[in-house]
Amino acid sequence: MPSTKATFTLDPRTTATLAQISQRLGRSKSAVVREAILDYGERVGRLGEDERRRMLNAFDELVPKIPERTDATTDRELAAIRDSRCSGGRGG
């Protein structure tokens, strides 16, 4: 796979961390940066723990509020809504 040369500015702490990781793994700094970016790319878009918990709590709150209806009741309600839309309004 062809590589593209790029220039980035890193602060001293990041540079030192990169050097340590590179030495510890016995890999080039470029390889460490490539792997780190791929790893970060996989994690971006995933929910953080706080967001995941907030959404699960919302789910737990909302699911019990879903009314229990038979399929026939739901079908009748949907038919009534469709009929009202076709007749120009709900007021009849």
The chain-level structural class is mainly alpha
Strand content: under 5%
DSSP, total strands: 0
Main beta sheet, described?
A: none
Q: What is the H/E order?
A: HHHH
Give the CA-based shape: elongated
As a percent range, the share of helical residues equals 55-70%
**What integer is the average pLDDT?**
90
List the SSEs and their pairings:
Elements: H1 12-25, H2 29-43, H3 49-62, H4 71-86
What does this 3D model show about the protein?
- The chain is mainly alpha-helical.
- It has helices at 12-25, 29-43, 49-62, 71-86.
- The longest helix has 16 residues, at 71-86.
Provide a brief overview of the structure:
The protein is built from four helices and no strands. The protein is mostly helical and 92 residues long.
Using brief descriptors, characterize the structure shown.
2 domains; 64% helix; elongated
